[in-house]
Amino acid sequence: MSRLRSVAAATAGVDRRTVLAAAGALSLCAGVGYALRPTDSEAATSAATDQTPAAHSGPAAATPLAPYRTGTTLATVSTPHGSGYRRLADGPGWQRVVRTELAGPKVGRDRRRAPLAAFVQFTDLHLQDVQHPLRLEYLRAAHQDVWRPHEALTVPGAVSLVERVNALRGAPVTGAPLHFVMTTGDNTDNNARCELEWFMKVMSGGRITPNTGDPRHYEGVQNSGLSLYWQPESAAGDGDKALGFPHLEGFLAAAVREVRSPGLNLPWYSTVGNHDALPLGLYGAQGDPYLAEAAVGGRKLFSVSAADARKLQDSIWSGEDPKGVGYREFLEAHASGTRSVTPDESRALYTPAEYLKAHLDPAYQGHGPAGHGYSSANLDAGTQYYAFRISEDVIGVSLDTTDAGGHYQGSVGTAQLRWLDRTLRDNKDSYAVVFSHHTSDSMTNTRPDPARPGEMRHTGAELVALLSRHANVLAWVNGHKHENEITPHKSGAGHPFWEISTASHIDHPHLARIIELVDNKDGTISLFTTLIESAAPARTDFTDLSQTGLASLYRELAFNAPGAKTNLAGTSADRNTELVLPKG
Asked: Which helix or strand (DSSP H or E) is residue 396 part of?
């Protein structure tokens, strides 16, 4: 922190919190059990101060500024109209709900409060190579919601979310500058190198061609002629057209053409999810030569019987096949039913080390920090968790809750749990926000990590118990379930905190969340949560296949996806909220 102290000293009259906001966050430690000397992230963050946009370096005044509702779901929400295939249009916003389960709000706090930090959470972007040979689209024969008609549009949809954040003037309640964006995992979908490259460019800026295989045209299920899937350019009927899905000439060519991302104009940080670490988000099979070869090969399975699909789906749900042995046998048994596709090395499965190296690559630094939370120490230690300073009064902690032994539910190892305990204890004078991919109730998978076979794995209940022992923990922010859910945690003599789970950006309603931390100056802390949609218009014109038009279509197709859950937006108490806490 010495570099930031010298910057602050040289900036007369500027609040220290403002300097930290302008410089981005400061790396504390990288999951190796000790505090590092100035890390790659810290050095790059300090050096990048001069190029940080002015919008991020405004004063964090104690007196609240005018609220910035524009561009948030406080102002308007995409709302369905009609029947059958339902069109979306702008509708009324969602009101803010005050949650009082952990502390009572005190009158006059809106006049006293001072901002501590403000940031944006992305989660479950699931950027997809929809032509990837390992994809499980054929499971739709047993369960309608397994394949989504809008999956080819994940990249323009994510870019539009970046555009929304870039257009925000400040935090909605306090008007304070936004410090950073944190993405809480499942950034990619198939654990493919091409998807990792697309993710890095969406976040940091660049040109993306979301196409693999034959560069001249699409080779996936949506021009297969199979009525199991929406065939947007075919005159023939299919199950989705029977529900009102449109005929869209030129859709597939538009879906795989170049997209341009401006990149976030804020620093951004990354947390790993099961889809970022395991093939298909499921299998602890990074070393399986059969799956590795199939990922880049020239054969793809498009359809199976409903009975076979149901059998494989049940195996996945039960977690009976964590290493993908049964999946490999399934593919081998159906080899005669595969179709020829163009092989592509860019579809190769990436390793945890390659995930880290992509984040450390200067080509993807954007507005920083270098490594986006990760450092060379993570690479050396083989870890994917770290801590960083958000502001003078707040630290962030990013966990790795993926179980490398396989299956989509999570857990943490003993070494990481002890590191977390030590990090919170060593920073007891700072408030803490913990980030992870999995939620407390989805951390139930305690298979051994193949790289650490003697180490115990720990559940979400154990993590809740640990966090409750630390008075400085304000919130645990996560995703994974694709659903908005805010849970108060208080047990016995433990310290209370809020668990904030946010819906995905692949399933409707395609939301991200702004979180503001404020000191009410009356013995309480408030956490304000405000949901945002992408910048794309709610109403789509079927003839508009521009990048923006595709992002609008992405949202509308997702709303109408057959079998899609209708409760993922949560209740009003899980959306735009004020979450009150006693000061620890």
From this structure: strand 394-398
- Please give the structure tokens belonging to residue 389: 């300073």
Question: Quick one: DSSP state of residue 19?
Answer: H
CB 175 within 8 A of CB 67: yes
CA distance 37 to 375: 11
Q: Residue 297: what are its φ and ψ, rounded to 5°?
A: -85, -170
Cis peptide, bond prior to residue 369, ω within 30 of zero: yes
178-188 residues labelled b (16+ CB within 10 A) or e (exposed): bbbbbbbbbbb
Rounded to a whole number, what is the largest CA-CA distance in the chain? 73
Alpha-carbon span 293 to 280, nearest angstrom: 15
| CB contact at 8 A, 577 and 97 | yes
Residues 43, 48, 50, 53, Cα dihedral to 10° = -140
* Distance, CA of 156 to CA of 548 (rounded, Å): 7
Positive or negative, the Cα torsion across 9, 13, 19, 22? negative
Collapsed DSSP state (helix, strand, coil) of residue 212: coil
Nearest alpha-carbon partner for 36 in 49, 27, 23: 27
Asked if 44 and 165 count as a contact pair (C-beta separation under 8 A), the reply is no
Give one word for 175, left, alpha or beta, with left for phi > 0 and alpha for psi -120 to 50: left
E-strand ranges in 100-249 read 114-122, 181-184, 206-208
Residue pair 487/501 in contact (Cβ under 8 Å)? The answer is yes
Distance CA 22, CA 298 (A): 48
Beta strand pairing status for 206-208 and 394-398? unpaired
As a whole number of angstroms, the distance between CA 343 and CA 152 comes to: 19
| Distance of alpha carbon 47 from the chain centroid | 27
What is the C-alpha to C-alpha distance for residues 42 and 45, in angstroms, rounded to an integer?
5
Place of tokens 């939620």: 439
Helix (H, G, I), strand (E, B) or coil at 349: strand
Buried-state track 36-51, b at ≥16 Cβ within 10 A, e below 16: beebbbbebbbebbee
pLDDT of residue 30: 73
Strands 497-501 and 473-478: parallel
Please give the Cα distance from 488 to 494 (Å, whole number): 12
Q: Which among 365, 122, 159 has a CA at the least distance from the CA of 258?
A: 159
The number of beta carbons lying within 10 Å of the beta carbon of residue 455 is: 14
Helix segments in 13-134, DSSP class H: 16-23, 40-47, 109-112
- 3-state DSSP helix/strand/coil percent for the chain, to nearest 5? 35, 20, 50
Residue whose tokens read 């295989």: 213
What is the total residue count of the chain? 584
Q: Is the pLDDT of residue 261 over 60?
A: yes
Identify the pLDDT of residue 43.
Answer: 28
pLDDT recorded at residue 200: 98
Alpha-carbon distances, residue 68 vs 58, 173, 353, 524, 562 (angstroms)? 15, 7, 40, 23, 36
Number of H helices, E strands in the chain: 16, 22
Task: Using the predicted structure, report yes or no on whether residue 132 has a pLDDT greater than 60.
Answer: yes
- Structural element, H or E, at residue 77: strand 76-81
Q: Give the tens place of pLDDT for each residue, 492-517.
A: 788 999 999 999 999 999 999 999 99
